[in-house]
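Ticket opened by: R.M.
Priority: normal
Category: complex prediction / small molecule

The reporter submitted a protein together with zinc ion and asked that the result be attached to this ticket for the collaborator who will pick it up next week. Submitted input follows.
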Amino acid sequence: MTTLHLYNTYSRKTEEFRSIHDKIVGLYVCGPTVYGPPHLGHVRGPVVFDVLRRYFLHLGYKVRHVRNITDVGHIVGDADDGEDKLQKQAALEQIQPMEVAQIYTLSYNEMIRQMNVLPPSIEPLASGHIIEQIEMIESIIKAGFAYEVHGSVYFDVIGYSKNHEYGKLSGRVLDDLMAGAGNESRELEGQDEKRNANDFALWKKATPEHIMQWSSPWGKGYPGWHIECSAMSRKYLGDTFDIHGGGMDLLFPHHTGEIAQSTACTGHNPANYWMHHNMITINGQKMAKSLNNGIQVTELFSGNHPLLEQAYSPMTLRFFILMAHYRGTLDFSNEALKAAEKGLQRLFNAAELAKNLVASDSSDFDIKSIETSIYASLNDDLNTPQAIAQLFEAARITNVVNDGKGKINAEGIQLLQHIFSEILTNILGIIPESNTSNNALDGVMQMLLNMRKQAKEEKNYALSDQIRNQLSELGFEIKDGKDGSSWSLV
Ligand SMILES: [Zn+2]
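Result attached by the on-call engineer:
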């Protein structure tokens, strides 16, 4: 394909991408609920949508990428009632709910920074947009698609469904929903307030002990989960924007609710393209508490988990994610991760070798066709595994030429170099680990510690103390142990 095509979950078709505004893309991606450390389920979306964004940049678009932080603590099990996740974690850790949100927002962002994910253009907090959410709820009520009961406001799914296809995005028919609804949630508090079990909360009345609550026209309470994304995407990207993304687990009820809310306000679906990445599995099984196979991202980076045979670097994880198409499941196993690590090294080695190849007058290889097929793959609904297969072909040719077993001309060498720098580095965002700032910092610190060690050996204590004291002033703690010195940031 010569132009970018994306699979639109809403139409269930692969469609040519056309932006609303010339060379500008508005992209909204649902961000994390920040009540616990990031696990492997959290990393796929950021990497997939980062590559999409980078590809748009490559194609000459400006991208406004909005990714929210759900810090209002919507509710366990994503039902309308139950415990507030943030409040529950705050009680466990004996801190404020907002401290919980802050801690895990920072750790989420640090984790994806290590994976070379570009930060979003705007990262709105749900708690910072209560006014916008209240205004949107008011206009949904005004449009006749929501009702208030005892200080809570619910979306009227039946009323909405008379003229709209409520379940279109998820492929669920309302009759099926009606049959299944309420079976497991009927016991929950608040169900009796709803006209129909499928109705979902736009606003919930808060009990006095509920810490996170705000004033509203309906009394003290807090917003439902879906309304935050409708309100914040509209605020920063407008009534209609280009792409709304997220995981397949968000199809229902979250994105279904979003579409209904926005349509109730503006009369139409807010996004032209809905993109969903598939879920992850671990050794072929769903990640679940009962299976004890939940792996935190930091555990993957340190190797400190019973299921892991070794540590895997952030770039290995990024590459591993891109080796699968985003709409297929991604299965984590030691074998697959080790293969990704090896493959990544092969590409890095080839990218280095390509810088110093010697040109011949003629060429045995058609590098242009490799480049063309890489772009064709990316244009075909962001088919990164196919693009990566072509990168391996470029690496194979590089090695053949480097070993003197094949010839390539100057133009071919330039194209090979371009393939590695533009596609591997800029679009797929794969950079050598030593280029990530953490590793660079570690390298500089080791250099300073070695200089200090040498100064000590030369009995130049003035210099060795000076190094330690100045580092200490900068916030680094140096610990001298039997096996040498180590450092940490305090
Ligand atoms: Zn969302």
